[in-house]
Structures are given as structure tokens and as C-alpha cells.
TrEMBL record:
Signal peptide: none
Occurrences of domain 3-dehydroquinate synthase N-terminal (ranges): 316-425
InterPro entries from the UniProt entry: Dehydroquinate_synthase, DHQS/DOIS_N, DHQS_C, EEVS-like, SAM-dependent_MTases_sf, SAM_O-MeTrfase
Family: Belongs to the class I-like SAM-binding methyltransferase superfamily. Cation-dependent O-methyltransferase family.
Keyword presence, NAD: yes
UniProt keyword list: Lyase, Metal-binding, Methyltransferase, NAD, Nucleotide-binding, S-adenosyl-L-methionine, Transferase
Identification of the protein by name: Demethyl-4-deoxygadusol synthase (DDGS)
Cofactor: NAD(+)
All copies of domain 3-dehydroquinate synthase C-terminal, residue ranges: 429-564
Length: 917
């Protein structure tokens, strides 16, 4: 690297600063040959001049003089000159266009490029530091002009239509009377295929080419960004200081990235220019589109590009939290490669926060960085994830474990897309607005206090209040302010080089419990913001009144202040340890110091955390819904619980619960040894197979609140089971994955409703899901007898049923199923429906007891789970004991003339057995 720096420096000129330096450590005196070879290294440029001028003193030779390497030599800029030159160019350009009205569009462009004022402006712009503070501030009162001038610097590499768009925009802003002339140039150009030809490739008169060619040669040395840019959105700079013998080099490097953010309406109306201006000059648009957005707006997207004559390549990917993994990033990378995505061509990303993260990360990785335009279709994307420089994905069950810093070149937020959002998904996005408001913008906070409820109720003015212009303005204002607050806080700390980040409010403790709780991100943030506000009050920062204002606005927007997962304060403490590590050894927890002002809490000892959390729980219990959010879980809004799937199809440790899991794992392994189209096809196949359970869950009736609660609580039990097993309190290691779940519960409920059964036997209680589901479906005088070997599981199930009006229908017995069946038979019990879901080796024996002892009534129904046992028989591998148990029952049923049965490929296979006699 050092050699490279010096070589660049030699090209661009080294200057000896001659700064006084502390004495260098003693070194051996270089011999003459070394001296010669070092001089030889600096054969070019100013260094050679320095060496030639006089011979070095020994002191100097030992490295006590410093060489400064200048990378770029940009012209000094004077805003008034640029403005004047621009206006003259517009005048002269319009006159040129008027004088050649009959010429072809290409000829018009050539005549323009030959005009002195155009030449002068373009060359001047190409030599200016257009990304500098000074330049930005000089044009701060006209951001359109600023944006155009930043691009004009690259005119030599831009396509004809791109340059025409820039000239048209300048005319609209500065010389409206000439705008029509430039507009018609653009229209004419856009109609020919040649509009994508770059200025540098036009066949221009020799003198004109020589003029621009000379500038290009100047730029090669002075500022290569202007002549050979990688893309028009990034520049680098640096300062390298080297001792004269090059033994020590000190350097700083920086990258400057330009970005534009627009809050707009009707972006997909074909006449809207936002996407046109980016993609028309490129001739095509490669887009990564969220599959749910595709369902609603896919046709509009296609129409937009078709009408505007832009080739459109649409790559549709799933954008659920559960899909936020490296495997999906890789699939996007493959798709980009297959479509010859170029490094200067911004990818269009259309969707919400997850697709912004995953596809944004793919762009960060593709050719090390490829620009992208973010078209935000959700609230979270629109004000937070969309313009965010952080792109990321989850890994090893940790949120955002992998990532990069790669902001979009253009972010577009159009509220119109939100009309199709699930209200629950929109609601949780509101947390991000409250976050900005409480930490950085009192005015925005007051707006949320006044309008928060209504914005949530109307999907931000897209499903209501459409005829109320004042409300529409309020909606835009809230979004604009939230966006501005976000950008203000984040863009000065793009690479998170320090941790004073107001935007991490609500993100300190919740990362530890968000995934296990199954909460939507915004609700998890809500709970964490509420806790943060309480801590602030306890610190003496927020007044009690203001603390309650924060809690109230969260609660009014129907977000969660509290979730039972937070009762596990040990896990919350672990989350704090993790976050301290992530924040470079500091807690640095952003919490409001006053309303609308940021503060940072840097210490919260463990005991105090436990205490504060309990106090906070008490406080939340007095809020509506006892602090709980409305539709607070992913499953409540039709999304899969992020914990229900492991991260990657390539994850060899993926928990194989069903035959589908086995297929997905196999496909994952296959995709590792394949690339290109093969890997993509395998990935697609894996996604389809993997999506079957999700689809079944999505389109089957949703479980009751009580059942949802059982699955949530069960999802958190794995560490507990390990502990209980370690203490000898269970006979074997249990796992949360043993739960039957929603689809099977729906099946059981439907069977009971269809058959009118009321005496039910549930063999294998676990945490009580199937028993409660069946209890919900039987009449008031019905009974569910449930059997369980483990006392701990029985206790847990009982606790899970508390609060359900159907709990009283359940009779829970503990012991070996075999023994308990003997007791039930002795009591002459018999059942309309039996659900068999215990250790598989005992299946056939238990079945025989059910039949022989008439525990299953004639005309009764037996439902058996796991009859495909993880696809073992299908895979042809040697069967485990469980696999053998399932097979024995399957064969036994086939051989038993008393029953009629059907095996359904639902999850791990469910067989319905009707007892004929
Ligand atoms: C797959 S889980 C049951 C899941 C439950 N039906 C549900 O809906 O979530 C199996 C349960 O049966 C219990 N079990 C396994 N073999 C048993 C046996 N032979 N006798 C009694 N209980 C048994 C296990 O302890 C475990 O809690």
C-alpha cells in the first residue's frame, strides 16, 4: 500500500513540508547503491526535482523531512462565477438550439458542445471540488442546481440524454424562458437509441474534441474522478505524509458520497421524472423488488418503464425479516451478475426495510460497491432503513450481525405505497418516528402527540383523510421531519465512528429479546424506548410528566411498552453486555435528556437493571392494554415468526423438524458446490419448499390470542429446557420445536367442529398448545384429558392456560402414557378424538391400547403427528428409533381392517385415522 501511495504521489506531485520533526531513531547509514535505487524510485515529478536541486544532508536523509503527497489539484471555486457561467451557457445554448431547429438531435448536441459558453462551463465544472462543504454551502439555497452541478462535473462520461436532462433542469431553475428549448432537445434525443452514447464517444469536430481532450488529459493527473469515474456518486481524498526515505508513512483517507433524498407523490405515474432522470440516460433499469410489493405494484412498475422506453429487468425477492440472511444476499448477487449489472449503474431497490437491508448489502458487496436507488414502499424504509447508510443481514440468530455502510445514491419516499400495507406493519414503523421526535425534535414530538393516533388509523393518510388537504400536509410534514431528523443524526456519522447516535434510542436492550419474542421490530423498539424514558426520569433528566408523555405517545400509537419476554431480566442484562461490546466498551445508551434532546446513559449496573425493569413493568401495567401493543408479533400481521426458521439454507445445523427441512438442507448443500444459474435454480427451489409451511400458516385461520401466547412463551424455553435437563428435572432434553403449532391446531379444531366430538384425549401435553386448541373447539361440557411424562412440562402447560376461558375443560395427568392409558381404560373412559404426539417408538403399542381397550370410540377419530418422521424413510437413510416407530405405526394402520386412514404431508406428516369397527 505504501508503495502505491508514493507512486500516486509521484504522479501528482510531492511537496517537502520541511516541518520540524523529532530526531529519528539511529539507523545504519545507507550505502550508495541504496541511495541510488531510492532516487530511482522517484524518477518522476517534484520529488526528482527536490533530489536534483541539492544533495541531502545526513539529517534529511535519516528521514527528518516530511514529504506531502497531494492527490488532487482542483481549481479554486467562486460561486458567483459558476452561476454567471451557467447563466451565460443557458443563454448561448438556447440561442444555438434555436439556430439549428431543423437539425437532428445528435447534431444539436454537437453544436451545443461546440459553443464557447458550454465548453467553458463544462470544463470549469469538471475541475471543481463539487462534493466539498464549500461547494454545497454556496448553492444551499437551490438544491436542484446543486444536484445538477455535482453531476455536471462528470459530463465527459455521461450519456447525451443525461447531459440534456441536466441542462434542462438548470434552465428550469435559472432561465425558465429557455427551458422549453432544452426540454425539446431531451425529447428528441430520447427517441433515438443513440441517446445513451457517452459525450466522450460522440463524433465531434476535431477542434472541439481536441479542446475537451486536453481537459481530459489535465484531469487524468489533477482529478481522475472528472475523467475516469467509477461512478458519479463517490470520490476519495487523502493526505499522505512520508519521511524522505519512505521508512515512515502517515496517512488519512476519506470517501465522500453524494446522495439525494426526495419525499414525493405518484412516483410511478409515467410522467413522474424521478426514476426517468436516473434510468433513461442508462437505457435500462435493473430492479430488486420485494415480492409483496410486486403483487401490488409490479404492473405499475413495468408500465412506468415501458411507457418511458427504458428496458426493465425485474428481480423479485422475498422481503421478510426471516429472509434477512446471507443466503438471500448471495442470491441477489448472483441475479445481478447474471444480468450484467455494471458498477456505475444504480440498482433500483423497491420495497421496505428488509429488502433495503438485504439488497443494499448486495450492492455494497457487488464490485465492492455499486450504487443503488431506494424506492421506499413502507414506513420503516421511508424514514429509516431506506436512506440509511447501514445495510445488513441477520446471522446466527443475531440481528444485523453482518453489514456494510453503503447509503443509496437516491432515496424516494412516496406515501402512496403505504395504502396497501398491513395496518400492523405500518403501525410498528411509527416507532421510528417517535424515536427521532423524542431524541431530536420537540416539534415533531408534539405533532405525534396530536396526530399520531390518526396517522396510524389511516395508514398515514392513504386510507382516510384523503379529502383533507390539511391532514395530508401534516402527514407529509411528519414524514419529512422524521426523515430530516434521521439524516441529520446519521449522515455526519456514516461509518458509526462514534456512538453518540440518537437513532439507537430504543435499540439498546431490545436486540436481546426482539427475535425470541417474535415481536415486530417497532414494538420491540417501543418497549425499549419506554424503558429508556423511565431510566431518564430516574436519572433526573426527564421530568415525570415528560416521561409519561413519551410513554403515552407510544401507547396512543398502539405500540408495545411492555412484553412478557422482558420479565427475563437476566436475558436483558446479557443483551446489555452484548451492546456494550458492540459499542466499543461503552453502554452509551441514547435516551432523551429532555424532550427533543439527546442524552447518553453510560452506566446501568446489573442489579439496578433488574430493579428498574420490575419498576417499569409495574408502571406499564397501568397503561391501556397493560402496556401491550396491538398486533405486536410478526405472526399477527401475516409474517412468519423470525425464530421459526434458521438463517440460511446453507446452515448445516438447521433444525430438521420436517421432510421439507431435510430438502432445504440438501438443496443448501447442493447450492454450495454449484454457481451461476444452477445455484440460482437451487436457491429458488429451496425457497419454494421452505415457503410451503409459511404459506400454510399464512392462509390458515389465525390462532386465538391465548394460543399465540403459548407459542411465544414456548419459543423462549430452549435455554430453560437445557437447564432443567442439566438439573435432572426432565428425563430428556426437550426443545421448543416440539410444539405442534398453528396449522395442526387448526386441523384438530376443524375435525372436532365437523365431528361434533367432545371427549378428547391428547397424548403428549408438552407446553399445552394442542390441548388448549382442542379445548377451544369443543362444547362447554366437553373435556380434554391430556397426558404428559414430565412434571415440568405439565406445570408449564398449566401456567400457559391461565387466562383462557377454556382452561377449565382440560384435565392434565402426569405419567407414562402407557400407564395412564391403563388407568383411563380401567375407568371405562373412551374418546371421540385422540391426538397422538409422543415419543415415536411407543406409537404402535399405544395405538394398539387405544383400539384394544376401546379408548378410541368406534366412529371416533385418531390423529397422529410426525408420521413422516423428518422424511427419514423418504431419504432412504437408515431409520432412527423414532423413524422406525413411525414406520411401525404406518404399517400397522395399513394392516388393520378396523380403520380407514389418510396420511397428509402437513409439516412432519399427519395421519387421520377413522375407526370403522
Ligand atoms: C411433541 S411433544 C407434544 C406437543 C404437543 N402436543 C403440542 O401440541 O405442542 C411430546 C410430549 O410428549 C411427552 N412424552 C413423550 N413420550 C411420552 C410418553 N411415553 N408418555 C408421556 N409423555 C410422553 C414429552 O415429554 C413431550 O412433552
Amino acid at each position: 500500500m505504501a508503495a502505491l501511495s508514493v507512486a500516486i504521489g509521484a504522479q501528482h506531485g510531492l511537496r517537502s513540508s520541511g516541518a520540524a520533526r523529532p530526531a529519528a531513531p539511529a539507523r545504519t547509514q545507507p550505502d550508495e547503491s541504496l541511495s541510488k535505487s531510492l532516487t530511482g524510485c522517484f524518477a518522476l515529478g517534484a520529488v526528482a526535482a527536490v533530489h536534483r536541486k541539492r544533495s541531502l544532508t545526513l539529517r534529511e536523509w535519516r528521514g527528518e523531512r516530511t514529504m506531502e503527497i497531494n492527490y488532487y489539484q482542483l481549481d479554486a471555486m467562486k460561486a458567483s462565477n459558476i452561476r454567471k457561467k451557467t447563466e451565460t451557457m443557458l443563454e448561448e445554448g438556447a440561442a444555438v438550439l434555436k439556430g439549428c431547429a431543423e437539425e437532428s438531435a445528435q447534431q444539436k448536441m454537437l453544436l451545443l458542445l461546440s459553443s464557447p459558453a458550454v465548453k467553458e462551463l463544462l470544463v470549469a465544472m469538471s475541475r471543481l471540488p463539487v462534493f466539498s462543504h464549500e461547494f454545497g454551502l454556496a448553492f444551499k439555497d437551490d438544491l436542484t442546481v446543486l444536484s445538477v452541478l455535482k453531476q455536471l462535473k462528470y459530463f465527459w462520461s455521461l450519456s447525451q440524454s443525461h447531459l440534456a436532462i441536466l441542462l434542462e433542469r438548470l434552465a428550469e431553475q435559472l432561465r425558465l424562458e429557455h427551458a422549453a428549448a432544452f426540454q425539446s432537445l431531451l425529447q428528441e434525443l430520447a427517441e433515438s437509441d443513440d441517446h445513451v452514447v457517452a459525450i466522450k464517444d460522440l463524433k465531434m469536430p476535431e477542434a472541439v474534441r481536441a479542446f475537451y481532450g486536453e481537459n481530459a488529459i489535465h484531469l487524468e493527473a489533477a482529478d481522475p474522478h472528472g475523467v475516469f469515474p467509477t461512478s458519479i456518486y463517490r470520490q476519495c481524498d487523502g493526505l499522505t505524509l512520508a519521511t524522505e526515505d519512505s521508512a515512515t508513512i502517515e496517512s488519512v483517507m476519506s470517501t465522500t458520497i453524494t446522495t439525494t433524498i426526495k419525499i414525493a407523490r405518484d412516483v410511478l405515474q409515467p410522467s413522474n421524472r424521478l426514476l426517468f432522470d436516473v434510468y433513461k440516460p442508462l437505457g435500462r433499469c435493473v430492479a430488486v423488488v420485494d415480492d409483496k410489493v410486486e403483487a401490488h405494484f409490479g404492473a405499475d412498475l413495468e408500465k412506468y418503464f415501458e411507457i418511458n422506453g427504458i428496458e426493465f429487468v425485474k428481480l423479485v425477492f422475498s422481503g421478510n425479516e426471516v429472509d434477512k440472511n446471507l443466503s438471500n444476499v448471495e442470491q441477489i448477487l448472483l441475479a445481478l451478475k447474471e444480468n450484467w449489472q455494471a458498477r456505475h449503474e444504480p440498482v433500483l431497490i423497491v420495497g421496505g426495510g428488509v429488502i433495503a437491508d438485504v439488497a443494499g448489502m448486495a450492492c455494497a458487496l457487488y464490485s465492492r460497491n455499486t450504487p443503488y436507488v431506494m424506492l421506499c414502499t413502507s414506513l420503516v424504509a421511508g424514514i429509516d432503513a431506506g436512506p440509511s447508510p447501514r445495510v445488513c443481514c441477520n446471522g446466527f440468530s443475531y440481528k444485523n450481525l453482518y453489514g456494510a455502510y453503503h447509503p443509496p445514491a437516491l432515496t424516494i419516499t412516496d406515501r402512496g405505497f403505504w395504502r396497501t400495507m398491513h395496518p400492523g406493519q405500518l403501525r410498528h414503523g411509527v416507532a421510528e418516528i417517535i424515536k427521532v421526535a423524542a431524541m431530536a425534535d420537540l416539534h415533531l414530538f408534539e405533532l405525534m402527540e396530536k396526530w399520531g393516533k390518526e396517522t396510524v388509523a389511516t395508514n398515514f393518510g392513504t386510507l382516510g383523510g384523503l379529502d383533507d388537504p390539511a391532514f395530508q400536509e401534516v402527514c407529509d410534514l411528519i414524514i419529512g421531519k422524521a426523515m430530516e431528523g434521521y439524516v441529520r443524526a446519521e449522515y455526519g456519522n456514516l461509518w458509526e465512528t462514534h456512538q453518540c447516535r440518537p437513532h439507537a434510542y430504543g435499540h439498546t436492550w431490545s436486540p436481546g429479546y426482539e427475535l425470541p419474542s417474535g415481536m415486530l421490530h417497532g414494538h420491540a423498539v417501543g418497549t425499549c424506548m419506554g424503558f429508556g424514558a423511565y431510566l431518564s426520569y430516574k436519572e433526573g433528566w426527564l421530568s415525570e410528566v415528560d416521561m409519561h408523555r413519551v410513554l403515552k405517545v407510544i401507547s396512543d400509537c398502539e405500540l408495545a411498552l411492555w412484553h412478557p419476554v422482558m420479565e427475563d431480566t437476566v436475558s436483558v442484562w446479557k443483551a446489555q453486555i452484548g451492546i456494550v461490546e458492540k459499542r466499543g466498551g461503552n453502554l452509551c445508551a441514547p435516551i432523551p435528556r429532555a424532550l427533543g434532546e439527546s442524552g447518553y446513559l453510560n452506566s446501568l449496573p446489573e442489579r439496578l437493571l433488574h430493579q428498574r425493569m420490575h419498576e417499569y413493568q409495574e408502571l406499564c401495567s397501568k397503561y391501556p392494554r397493560e402496556g401491550r401493543g396491538v398486533q405486536e408479533h410478526s405472526v399477527d400481521v401475516g409474517l412468519e415468526d423470525p425464530m421459526s426458521k434458521k438463517d440460511s439454507i446453507r446452515d448445516a445445523d438447521r433444525c430438521v423438524v420436517t421432510p421439507m427441512d431435510r430438502v432445504v438442507v440438501q438443496l443448501g448443500a447442493a447450492s454450495q458446490s454449484t454457481s451461476g444459474a444452477g445455484a440460482r435454480a437451487i436457491g429458488e427451489a429451496a425457497r419454494i419448499v421452505d415457503g410451503i409451511d409459511e404459506m400454510v400458516t399464512k392462509y390458515s385461520s389465525q390462532p386465538s390470542e391465548a394460543l399465540k401466547n403459548v407459542s411465544k412463551r414456548t419459543a423462549m424455553t430452549n435455554p430453560l429446557w437445557a437447564e432443567l435437563m442439566g438439573q435432572g428435572n426432565t428425563s430428556r432434553l426437550m426443545e421448543a420445536e416440539m410444539i405442534s403449532g398453528q396449522a395442526e391446531a387448526q386441523l384438530l379444531q376443524l375435525l372436532l367442529k365437523l365431528s361434533g366430538g367432545k371427549d378428547v384425549l391428547d397424548i403428549g401435553t408438552f407446553t399445552g398448545y394442542s390441548s388448549l386448541a382442542m379445548a377451544e373447539a369443543i362444547p362447554e361440557d366437553g373435556t380434554v384429558v391430556t397426558l404428559e411424562r414430565e412434571q415440568e412440562a405439565k406445570d408449564m402447560a398449566k401456567a400457559n392456560w391461565i387466562g383462557s376461558p377454556h382452561a377449565s375443560k382440560i384435565e392434565s395427568l402426569v405419567g407414562e402414557a402407557h400407564d395412564l392409558l391403563i388407568c383411563l381404560a380401567a375407568e371405562d373412559k373412551s374418546f371421540d378424538l385422540v391426538f397422538l404426539d409422543v415419543d415415536k417408538p411407543g406409537y404402535f403399542g399405544l395405538y394398539q391400547m387405544l383400539m384394544d381397550k376401546n379408548l378410541l370410540k368406534v366412529k371416533g377419530l385418531l390423529v397422529v403427528d410426525n408420521v413422516m418422521y423428518k422424511g427419514e424413510e423418504l431419504s432412504g437413510t437408515e431409520l432412527t428409533k423414532n423413524g422406525q416407530g413411525a414406520q411401525a405405526l404406518n404399517q400397522g394402520l395399513l394392516d388393520d381392517p378396523r380403520v380407514q386412514q389418510v396420511m397428509l404431508p402437513l409439516r412432519d406428516g399427519v395421519t387421520l385415522v377413522y375407526r370403522e369397527s
